[in-house]
UniProtKB/TrEMBL annotation:
Keywords in alphabetical order: Signal
Protein name as catalogued: Uncharacterized protein
Signal peptide: 1-27
Length: 186
């Protein structure tokens, strides 16, 4: 039993040491052996820069051009995809594809736009002190793309019914939250 436990504990440590010993790319541009000119650094994922730029383009245009349908953007680097969260609409899909033809876009159907969720998120934020007066400690809140306003509280099982009842008609996901603990130097 002791040998098995030692093996279980030592194996991850050995893997970590082996991974740390592997060579990594330098942050500085490599030098071309023939000319001595800098060679641009390559990202870990092929096409990463292109996907990131396309995501930025869509994320800037989305709220302006499709405020009632756009919910957000993400990248799936291993699959080489730009994920666009939006309320389904064929014209939006066509416009997004035309905006970033250099990447493959996958559309994710959602129920709510970023604008709708942001307004509801602000409403929940404005009520934080009110909730604290009712013994509900809200540690945080954020928007989950197209789905809900996530409200992080100290006691989600106890408080979820009260919170969702208070925000009737607002998609609220009540989850476990933790207090903010700032990191200090030293």
């Amino acid at each position: 039993m002791r040998l098995r436990l030692t093996t279980l504990l030592a194996t991850p440590l050995l893997l970590l040491v082996a991974a740390c010993a592997m060579p990594v790319a330098s942050a500085a541009p490599a030098q071309s052996p023939a000319s001595g000119a800098p060679v641009p650094a390559q990202s870990y994922w092929p096409g990463q820069e292109e996907l990131m730029k396309a995501g930025e383009t869509v994320d800037i245009a989305g709220p302006r051009r499709w405020p009632d349908g756009y919910a957000g953007v993400a990248v799936d680097l291993p699959a080489g995809l730009l994920l666009v969260y939006r309320i389904p609409a064929a014209d939006v899909d066509d416009e997004v594809r035309a905006l970033v033809p250099q990447v493959t876009v996958r559309f994710v159907d959602v129920a709510y736009s970023a604008r709708q969720l942001a307004a509801w998120n602000d409403q929940v934020g404005a009520d934080t002190a009110w909730w604290q007066g009712r013994d509900v400690l809200v540690h945080g809140r954020y928007v989950r793309f197209g789905e809900c306003v996530v409200v992080e509280v100290e006691h989600p099982q106890r408080d979820a019914a009260r919170i969702t009842a208070h925000y009737r008609g607002v998609p609220v996901c009540v989850e476990q939250g933790y207090p903010f603990v700032p990191l200090t130097a030293g």
